[in-house]
C-alpha cells in the first residue's frame, strides 16, 4: 500500500511539473501564487517584528521611529557604529554574497533564472534590520522584496519546478512583499511586473494577484486592514491647480534625476574595499543625524505628519533635500538600504513644500497640503523607479480616494518624463545594474523564451541505446517505434539519430539484390548512413532561452534533456532541436 501511494504521489508530482513547463498552466500557477503569498506574508511579519521590537524598546517614547528624541551624542554614534559593524560583516563575505535588494533580485532573474539562495536571504535579513535600527537613511520595502523573492524562489527549487515557473514565483514574492509592507495588493502586482519583471503577461497576472492578496490577508491578521499612512480625505479644489501640479511635477522630476545621478556617481567606487565604502557612508550619515534626525530610519512618522499638514515650509524643504542627499550618497557607496521608503519620504516632503507655496500664491484655489504631499509621493516613486503605473496604483490604494486619480496621472507621468527624457535617466535599479557592469535583457523575444521550459516542446519519444547492436537487438529497439535514438558513449550520450534511419538501413540490407553480402553480425550506429546530430546536455528545468544559449556556446545540433534523479545518475527525458524552439516561438507569435 505504501508503494502504491508513493507511486501515485510521484506520478502526480511529475504531471504537475510537466504542466508547468508551458505557458498555460494557470491552475498550477494559481496554487503556487497562493503558497508564495502566504510564505512571504509570514516572512515579512517576522522581518517587521525584528525591526520594530528593538526600536520600540531602545528609542524614547516607545515609538519605532522617534530617532529625533535621542541625545545628539547617541544620534552621531549610532549610524557610524552601525556602518562599521555592517562593513565588517560584508567584508567577511564573498562579493556575490554581499549583493542584496531589488537590484540583486533583477540580476538573479536576468542571469540565473531567478535562483536565489537561503544565504542571500540571511544576509538581506540581517543587513535590512541593521540599517534601520542603526539609523541609516533606509526603508524596509526593498529588503522585504528580496526576502519575498528569495523564499518564493527557494520553494520552487525545493519542488524542483521548471525555471520558467521559478521566475513567476520570484515575481509572486515581489508582489506579495510590497502588498504586505504597504497593504496595497494592486500596486504590489503592478510593481512586480513593471519594475522587476518588466513585462506583462496574462498567465503571470493570476498567480501574482493571488500572491499579493494572500500576503495582504496574512498581514491584516496582525496589523489590521489600514494602509501604511494615515491619509485624510483629499480632493482637488479647482482645475486651476493643474498648472501648479505641472510645476510640481517638474520639480519632482528634477529631484528624481538628481537622486539617480548621485547614486550612479557614488556607485563608480563599487570596486573599492567594501569596509571603506560602508564606513564612509556611515560617516556621511553622521551630520545628517545630528542636524536633521528625521532622516534617520524609515521616517514614516514624518511622512504622516506631512500628510496631515503639521509641518512648516522650511522644515519640509530641508528635510526633503537632506533625505535625498543622505540616501543617494550612502546607497551609492554600497549601504544595503531599501530605497522605496526614502523615495516616498522625499516625494511627500517636497510635494508638501510646493503645496504650501501654492497656498500662498492662490489661497482660494489651493488644495490641502496632504493632497500635494500624496501627489509628490506618487511622482517621486514613478520618476525614480520609472514605473508610472505602479506609482499610480500605490497612490490610489494609499489614499483610497478615486479623486486622486486624475491629478495623480498628470503629475506622475510628467515627472517620469522629465526624469527620463529631459535628463536621460533610466530606472534607479537599471542604473545600478549598469554601474556594476550588468544589463537587463527584456526584449519581447527573450521574454517569450523565458516563459517556456524545454519540457514543453521536447520530443519525448526517444530510446537510449548502445553504439554497437546486433541485427536482432536493432529490430527489438525499433519495436517501440521511437522517433530518436540516443547513442550512448563512455561518458554519456554522444549523438542522436532518427530511428527511421536505422530502420531504413536494416531494410536496405535485407533486399534481394544484397543477398550476396555477408550477413550482418554487428551494426555500428555511428557508421551507418544516418542524419546524426552532435549533442549537448540541457537540464529539464531550463527555459528556451537557456536552451538557445546552450546551442550557441556548444555548437551542438541537438540537446538531450536530462535531470538528476539520484547522485551520479542522470535520466534523459527528451530531445530538443533548435528548429523546435524557432517553430514554437513562431507558432505562439502567430
TrEMBL record:
Keywords of the record: Chloride, Chloride channel, Ion channel, Ion transport, Membrane, Transmembrane, Transmembrane helix, Transport
A Pfam family per the record: Voltage_CLC
InterPro entries found in the cross-reference section: Cl-channel_core, ClC, ClC-type_chloride_channel
Entry membrane topology: Multi-pass membrane protein
Cellular compartment(s): Membrane
Keyword Ion transport: yes
Transmembrane domains' residue ranges: 29-51, 76-95, 168-193, 200-222, 242-262, 274-292, 312-332, 344-363, 369-392, 404-424
The keyword Transport belongs to this UniProt entry's keyword annotation: yes
Record's protein name: Chloride channel protein
Species, as recorded: Marinobacter suaedae
UniProt lineage: Bacteria, Pseudomonadati, Pseudomonadota, Gammaproteobacteria, Pseudomonadales
